Amino acid sequence: MIEYTLRAWLCISAPAGKLFLHQMRNRILIISVIVPVVFVMYLFTKSIFSSAPALEAVSPNTNFLFHIRSIDEFKKQYEETAIWEQLKRIQPCGKLSNGLSLLQILAAENEKLASDLFEQDVFAAGFLTQAYTMDYVFLFETDRAGKIVLDQLHPFIQDEQPVIISHQYESENVYEFTYRTSSISFSVAKVAGIFIFSTSTLLTESAILQLKNGDAITDDKSFMDVYDSMKKEEGTAVYINFKNVANYLSTFSDQAGTKKIMQLQNFASWMGTSIHFSNADITFSGYVSAKNEKVNYTLQNKSDAGPDLSLKIDFADHEPYIRNLIAERNLDVLQKNFDLLQMFSAMQVEFRDDGELFFAEGIIQFSTEAKRKSGLIWKTKLDSEVATNPVIIYNHNTKQNNIVVQDSLKQLYLLAEDGTIIWKKKTDAFVQDGITAVDFYGNDKTQILFATEHGIHLTDINGADVEGFPIVFTASATNSLSVFKSQETDDYTMFIACDNRNVYGFYKNGKPVPHWDPDLNIGIVAMPLYQLQSKDVSVFAIIDMTGSITLINESGKKIHQITAGSHIMGADIFRNKGEELLVVFLSDGTAVKIYPDGKTVNLDLKGEISTAATGDLNNDKNDEIVYIDVANTLIARQQDGTNLFKTSLPDAYYTIHMCSVNNRDILTLYSDITAQVLVMDSRGNIVNGFPVEGKIQPVITSAHAGEELLITGKDHFISCYRIK
To answer: Is the model's pTM score more than 0.85?
Structure first.
């Protein structure tokens, strides 16, 4: 019929017929080319998407996508390894493992569903569902379980059956399972042959919407390029969306840290990798998409300079940098996972240009024994060498603890909690060791009080001298300023000894203590004054360089004088059954307990000692005497004469210093010879992460985020370390 009509038409108009045939030939030629191409393209794209239709339910906004080709293999490669056990402590891995476990419990209720779960590819897409929280949606095809009735599944969890509530979303049934006793909940749905499971109903509904209306991850060319290249890899594949991971990490940071973290967005687009665990490391290999005419990716820029790029990082060494990226409100996350960070000691990854993509392979070293790094948080350089021990001062302006220290140029510094120098000022001489935080005016504002050999200084928190100060001496001071606050009047009294062998007392207004007798007929005093207290008596103890211990009352009147039988090498306040006594340590191994009424009791420490202090290490409200003997043994002696611990030290030349923080005492040791600082626990063990570098007496503070920090120094530097 067509042939007859065509001939008839040609008879009517031969020229027009020739033109028509020419056009028809061209059209047939074009169609003969286009149809096979379109058909092949259809088969090709169909093979891509039909091989993983569950991907159609995944939004390109996912952070991580796990392609689990076999649940059994995933268990062997991931769940049954020591490394994964540690990784579950962090949210993305912990939520994945927990969700997969719940999914298997649910699937075990139906033989066909379990068969599909273990035979089909499972996709787990991780999304940020709320601040700091990542959840997963699990997706797989239902072949045998195509007609399963979801609300007939009633898996027991911890001997409890679920309460099941259903609702409709986008005309599809969503079933929510809740276990009220254990607070476990999840939701499921089945749409177009895809089984959807999530501990977040929001993600279940999002997957439904994605299947019906959304732009799937399969429309993202960068992802599909990586996904196609990963098809030939075996085992579980992990896909990382650099842009969205940067957004996730930025939720833990502050504004300054976010700017640095967001640079990750521009490193590359997608990375797909196969991960393999062993007892000692994690190896991974895969592909990275970083070539886009519209985006100037960092990886592409680096490769322009050469075909290969290698990156190395030591996680423990970079912990201070990582800490600086985290907002104060989230530092507890780093604190809780500090040991985990140390277990993954180092990572090395190499990128090679592989045409349209980059090939990436690398290794992360792992050990169940955490790499004992010091946990250095910051290190601040002063203009010259550190000259005084650091002191913690509360800054009422910033509501944080600050550090005060002096350098060898006689400059006084105030450092912020993060090590930033807030201010520095020149002083007339070196500080006589003791710096004290006071509130002289009772208005909850901190002042900084200290003495040099020439006088008593008082500055406000901004570094300005307070009116009426300094109080100038007529003789040179020989010891540090001792400051005591009355429990009854909230008034302050200050004491200083001078080289004229007098001890002077002042009130906070600079006026001398009335009726004070400075002429005590004693030797040169180099140690601070100590206050001894009992229920009825309060006295001050003065120790001079002749070995004499003088007890005076609050008017400066001498009431007792005790002569030591050996060289005095130190002294400390000793809390005993509600009283505050003085214990004086003699080099022959005798500890002399001195009561406020002048009574003395000698304790035999059984041999010569090199250093000693007191502190309540076991939190029983009574102090222990802690000392190091000539055999380099650290001993903590309890008040009943038994040892709390006895520990051999790794090196000699340590000095004991007791730090108080959060209503407890912490034992530290430091050496200006070996330049090491140790922190000891209540059993006499060295705390993980120590020794650290330091030559001066350390101080411990509680930071704004609640973590405990040790401050020390060496040469031109003040350093801050975390105590684990």
So the answer is: no
